[in-house]
Amino acid sequence: MDPVRNPYAPGAGQRPPELAGRDRETEAFDVILERLARGRPERSVVLTGLRGVGKTVLLGALRSAAVRRGWGTGKLEARPDQPLRRPLAAALHQAVRELSGRHPDEAAEVLGVVKAFALRAAEPQPVGAGARGRSAPRLRDRWQPGIDVPAAVGRADSGDVEIDLVELLTDVAGLAQSAGRGIAVCIDEMQDLMPEDVSALCAACHELSQQGLPLLVVGAGLPHLPAVLSASKSYSERLFRYVSIGALDRDQADRALRAPAQEEDADFAPEALEALHVATDGYPYFVQAYGKAVWDVATASPITAEDVAVAAPQAEAELAVGFFGSRYERATPAEREYMRAMADLGAENGDGAVATSDVASRLGRKPQSLSPARDALLKKGLVWSAERGRIAFTVPHFGRYLRQHAPD
Questions:
Q1: 104, 172 Cβ separation under 8 angstroms
Q2: Helices 398-405 & 333-346, crossing angle to 10 degrees?
Q3: Which among 196, 250, 198 has a CA at the least distance from the CA of 221?
Q4: Which domain of life is it from (predicted)?
Q5: Is beta strand 44-48 parallel, antiparallel or unpaired with respect to 240-244?
Q6: Nearest to 185 by CA among 106, 87, 42, 297
Q7: What tens-digit pLDDT sequence spans the chain (408 residues)?
Q8: Residue 161 and residue 151: Cα distance in Å, rounded?
Q9: How far apart are CA 360 and CA 169, in angstroms?
Q10: Quick check: 125 and 142 in contact, CB under 8 A?
Q11: What DSSP element (H or E) covers 90?
């Protein structure tokens, strides 16, 4: 098959040619947008799931749905070492500019509030005293948010992120309401927000919901994200609409493979589709990776089970380097030891969650001595706590990879 015409697209957040199995989620989001357009109350949305199930892709699709309705949108990716102010200000800057055409004066005022909110993130840098050292050092901010209006005074600039975020999002949503539109703020890797930012975001969403303002937060994160939100604000369980994203079923996985191939006048034999579903378990990233490898080795249509067998080692090698290996390399030796013990235990239960006490027993250690390694893996997003006293990988097939590739 011609590799230039290969339709499959394995990549981080890269939209596949066929967004199979997500019709229910996109249709439900269209209903939310329409309800908000009619002044009906709605909750913000949180997508959760393992790595490789297409959360980022779906987040992008939902953002595109908001754009098609004329909404202002912005997107950011949370990082555990970065406060929310700067990336959120950049996202809202873009969203407000998209709405500024109808109400330029009001938009300029709101941008001033966005700038004031952002500037509270700037770290003051001391400016040296005079030659004789008589004058006291003064402070200046070297970072600027790139917004060409004066910063507002007395709005979203208190320094308390919860107060400031409520004021900021209320003003931004008010502009959207005046324009007859809405705002969608998309936050990827939402579980990595700092605790104080999680609390502030929940408080702001609560206020927006009570006022019926047309601003949605659309978050995406790992399966423990609902627990992160709930630990911050007890009412977060009722504040968001939680959507769990999982692997594709057999029909959906077949559609993800066949529809792009048929666009290129090709198809798969039934036996090939069966072999691919066994290899990928329907995880969207694996479907794309195997689809790309199989296309490149196949010589004619329909693609056969023999083609799958030939391409499988190539697909597995690429996943071992780019998908699994890059994550394994981020771990310290102690963390790798912990994960390898998880993998060995997972061989006995289909790589499901394992008890932390069993990990300790396998390593011949006391559970308390392994807490630093476990906590570091949680912070790195390599594992998640399915329930108290149990731990699981955030990456599908990671246990199998470790058993095959990681040294004992």
A1: no
A2: 110
A3: 198
A4: Bacteria
A5: parallel
A6: 87
A7: 899 999 998 887 788 999 999 999 999 999 999 999 888 889 999 999 999 999 999 999 999 999 999 999 999 999 998 999 999 999 999 999 999 877 788 999 999 999 999 998 754 444 444 444 444 444 344 567 788 899 999 999 999 999 999 999 999 999 999 999 999 999 999 999 999 999 999 999 999 989 989 999 999 999 999 999 999 988 888 899 999 999 999 999 999 999 999 999 999 999 999 999 999 999 999 999 999 999 999 999 999 999 999 999 999 999 998 899 989 999 999 999 999 999 999 988 888 899 999 999 999 999 999 999 999 999 999 999 978 899 999 999 999 999 988 766
A8: 17
A9: 46
A10: yes
A11: helix 85-99
Distance (Å, rounded) from C-alpha 25 to C-alpha 132? 67
Going by C-alpha positions, the residue among 186, 155, 202 that lies closest to residue 92 is 186
CB burial of residue 113 (10 Å; 0-12, 13-18, 19+)? buried
Q: Which two tokens stand for residue 143?
A: 């970072």
CA dihedral 245, 246, 247, 253 (to 10 degrees): -30
Q: Which uninterrupted H or E stretch holds 197? A: helix 195-211
Backbone angles phi, psi at 36, to 5 degrees: -65, -35
Helix, strand, coil percent content, the chain, rounded in steps of 5: 55, 10, 35
CB atoms within 10 A of CB 63: 19
